[in-house]
Amino acid sequence: MIHMNIVEFGLYFAELRERSGFKSQRQLAINSGVSNGTIARIESGTQKVTPETLKLLAPHLKEVDYEQLMIKAGYIKESEQTVSYEDFGGRAYYGGGSDWTEEEKAAADAFIETLRKRKADLENK
């Protein structure tokens, strides 16, 4: 799975929304809490989706999870997909430093939250 430019991602996202049973952008907006305008701009390729928005949308989309959306949107590399929470002794570690942008920090934080949720889900099975 490779990341896409924003126009390609928008087309992919629109198809994903429809396959997930949302006939309109408004239906997804109501269910996810993301504004209809934001969804429209993402689908038209005029706005790059943020990690925070992906986190809100992912639970409502079928056949894909937050991590896969982050890869498609270009926030994380596919090779990073296999990093496990356990790989770091149960401690969240993603490197980085003071030179990270706010967007990079948000993407890393969101990714770690996904790993923690996945771990909790596995423990509750």
SS elements, strand count: 0
What is the radius of gyration? 15 Å
> Which structural category do the helix and sheet elements fall into?
mainly alpha
Low-confidence stretches: 81-95
Q: Approximately how much beta-strand content do the residues carry?
A: under 5%
End-to-end CA span: 28 Å
Give the helix proportion (percent range).
40-55%
Q: What do the pLDDT scores average to?
A: 82
Give me the number of helical elements.
Answer: 6
Quick one: biggest sheet?
Answer: none
Shape descriptor: globular
Return the string of H and E elements.
HHHHHH
Summarize the structure in words.
This protein has 125 residues and is mainly alpha-helical. Helix content is 54%, strand content 0%. The chain contains six helices and no strands. It has helices at residues 6-19, 25-32, 36-44, 51-57, 66-72, 102-123. The radius of gyration is 15 Å and the shape is globular. The two termini are 28 Å apart.
